[in-house]
Amino acid sequence: MGFGEVKAEVARHANPHGIPHAPRANVSGSGHYEIIGGYHYDGQKDAGEMPIKNYVVNYPTLRQRSWDLLLDSPLAQTVIKKYVSWSIGKGLKLQAEPSISVLAEEGITIKKEEWSKRVESRFELFKRSKGTDYSGMQSLNKLESEAFKNAKIGGDVLVLLYYKKGRIKVQLVDGARVATPLNRVALFPMKEANGNRIKEGIEIDDSGEHQAYHIKRPGASIETDRIAARDAQGRIRAYMVYGWKYRIDSVRGMPLLSVVMEMSQQLQQYQAAAVASAEDRAKISVAIEHQPNAMSTGDNPFATSTVRALNVSGEFAPDFPEDSFGQPLADKVTATTKRQAVNLPLGAALKTIESKAELYFKDFFTVNIDQVCAACEIPPNVAMSKYDSNFSASRAALKEWDNTLNVQREDFAEQFLAPIYAFFLEMETRTGKIKSPGYVEAFDSEDWMLLEAYHKSRFVGVPVPHIDPVKEVDAERKKLGKAADAIPLTTIERATEILGGGDSDGNIEQFSEELKLSRTLGIKLEDTLPKPAAGAAPAPAKKKIKKK
């Protein structure tokens, strides 16, 4: 493109206000042109097509609409239930993995396997106990599921931690109860006496850290109570768990269904209208169509049957057919128990009432379901429990869902379970139930590196099963090569988790006791040693050593 062409191309453009610019082009080097000046670009190429919307999120209304949609829309309820059951299930399991290298650098040595096993076994009992719940009604595993559900539906949930009579208590507070006191300015929060601001019921300092939460009292009371986020020693005692946040400065969470609320409601209305329309057409089986000409008499071909069925008084004749409840059969069509031929008047025809709306219902509904599920990051076949695709498509969908689950679990564990685990480990160490050298001193001196080395852990859930486990294993074996054929690809603990077989250590201990009992009862067990191959030389007999 030459200089003249560049100049002509530039001149054809205009700014958003319709006023053309006058940029210039200079020759820069041999055959290179540099345009002096530029055009304002804000993402909109055609004026008026993309109006700017500065959304001010109404969190209370979004939360209530999301809960309403859960009861109004079967699709929304299906997505949320699958999300909760897959992500949390019976509860995430702790895998304590302290950083041995960091602890060693700090001069601390522990037996990792022994320490981790003790912590995991005690934390598992802690999660299973109903005494962990502040109300004593549910286990921590159930509270975990409730917290995840409320965060996804309502946008956020408040978690409170207590320590009473040597036990940690966990309480969940609905996000709807976290609100700015009525005597405060909600839209433009002013600084409190302590220098903090109250935004959407959350008191924050200048750095954005949560300092306290203002909670409405139960019932119809409009008064609020202030709950500090940390205690005097700096422990986290109250914190928010979010579904997802809109922007960085947002202090409240957004419901998972926010972007698909209107679409889900319209889909529900469309489905109800389609069903009602089909029901109305089913009530009217046929219609009499009269030809618009002089040959049509306009007579009703069923009039004779109707008159015959009725007396002069307008009541049904004594011998008129009745149903099993003693009610006369409808007079809108000729009563019969056999096939019948109708003698139509001249110019009349019977027309069946039909519609093609039902033929396109599935396609229309399926496309919109796919959009709703995609927005919620769940494969449609997983949400609807329909696995009718080919192997490759189903495997790709499950792989993507597996990745989504891992991300969701890690995010939720970091928000909800990590503070509880840190509080649990501190209290168990202080009371001497768990031996963690240097932990208490690190907490009192705020040695965060040592504390994080002890806190390092992960929480795992039930993995997504493979469509064909044999193919998956064979593929991984081929990647490793022949030299790794004898190397195991998993552990007993991992295999037990995948199969949902409980605790691997407990299984081994139980099997050992059962094995001892079987031998005591004289039950003959199969030889567990591999038999020599056919034609192989027999194993050499053991030499007897004479005792002196």
Short description:
The protein is α+β, with helices and mostly antiparallel strands. 40% of the residues lie in helices and 12% in strands.
Strand order of the largest sheet: 6-7-8-9
Note the run of SSEs as H and E: HEEHHEHHHEEEEEEEHEHEHHHHHEHHH
Counting DSSP H or I runs of 4 or more residues, the number of helices is 16
Q: Describe the main β-sheet briefly.
A: 4 strands, antiparallel
Taken as a percent bin, the fraction of beta residues is: 5-15%
Distance between the termini: 106 Å
- Whole-number radius of gyration? 37 Å
Q: Which blocks of ≥5 consecutive residues have pLDDT under 50?
A: 13-22, 330-337
The residue-averaged pLDDT reads 79
Tally of DSSP β-strands: 13
Indicate the overall shape: extended
Report helical residue fraction.
Answer: 25-40%
| Secondary-structure-derived class | alpha+beta
